[in-house]
Design brief:
alpha+beta; five-stranded antiparallel beta sheet; four-stranded antiparallel beta sheet; 3 helices; 24% helix; OPI10
Length: 188
């Protein structure tokens, strides 16, 4: 039905690696692969297998869960988008009970896969959208700081020179040309 790969960490794993909960839900216990260092796994590639036909109105959604937290939606694949590399922004573990028995299994992180209605899936790549939002906020902050250094005050209004946007944009472009790492700093 589907497969996953942890880039630079695993060979392709098919759905049989996951515990099937019911016909539309699967769980992968991360303790099986990496133990408590689950949060070192930052990406997953999920893909539909050739022989599987997902209905056109359905999506295969991927969720993650740290010990003690709720499931967090990460993204989905569909017939029109049969594979995706998704970021895994693991939530901080919360409210872990103290284990009283040496035989009790340690709490584990999980990856869940679910067949869902396409209309109910809000976005196919949530982490990608968050990266774009962070990038936009950092660029806006850079512009604000630049403008603020040229501001004057007129009563209750801040006054900036008319050409401030052009000056900022030229400076921004020149810096990006000189230093290829400059723009990468905005995406972090």
């Amino acid at each position: 039905m589907f497969g996953v790969v942890f880039p630079n960490r695993s060979f392709p794993l098919d759905a049989s690696t996951f515990a099937q909960i019911d016909p539309t839900h699967w769980l992968l216990d991360m303790n099986h692969f990496v133990g408590e260092s689950y949060d070192s796994i930052r990406e997953i590639c999920i893909f539909l297998l050739n022989g599987f036909s997902l209905p056109p109105d359905k999506a295969l959604a991927l969720y993650i869960q740290s010990p003690g937290s709720t499931f967090l939606y990460c993204g989905a694949v569909t017939l029109s988008r049969p594979s995706a590399v998704l970021s895994l922004p693991w939530p901080d573990p919360v409210g872990l009970p103290l284990l009283t028995s040496a035989e009790a299994p340690p709490p584990s992180a999980k990856i869940g896969v679910s067949v869902e209605d396409l209309a109910g899936v809000t976005s196919l790549d949530v982490a990608g959208e968050r990266r774009i939002e962070r990038l936009a906020l950092k660029v806006g902050e850079n512009l604000f700081n630049f403008m603020q250094s040229f501001c004057g005050v007129d009563g209750s209004k801040l006054v900036v020179p008319m050409d401030i946007m052009d000056r900022w944009f030229k400076k921004f472009q020149e810096r990006a040309k000189r230093d290829p790492e400059y723009l990468k700093g905005f995406a972090l």
